[in-house]
Amino acid sequence: MASQASPTAARTTRPSADSTRDRILAAAVDLFSERSFEGATTREIAARANVTQPLLNYHFRSKEHLWHAAVEGIFGELTQALTARIEGLRGVDELSVAKLIVREFIYFSAAHPQLHRIIMQECKVDGARMDWLVDRHIRPLYEQTVSLFTRLVERGDIPDVPATHIYYVITGAGATMFVLAPECRRLAGFDPLEHEAVEVHADVVTTLLFGS
Amino acid sequence: MASQASPTAARTTRPSADSTRDRILAAAVDLFSERSFEGATTREIAARANVTQPLLNYHFRSKEHLWHAAVEGIFGELTQALTARIEGLRGVDELSVAKLIVREFIYFSAAHPQLHRIIMQECKVDGARMDWLVDRHIRPLYEQTVSLFTRLVERGDIPDVPATHIYYVITGAGATMFVLAPECRRLAGFDPLEHEAVEVHADVVTTLLFGS
DNA sequence: GTCTATAATTAGATAGAC
DNA sequence: GTCTATCTAATTATAGAC
Question: Which residue's CA is nearest to the C1' of nucleotide D5?
Answer without folding.
Answer: A54
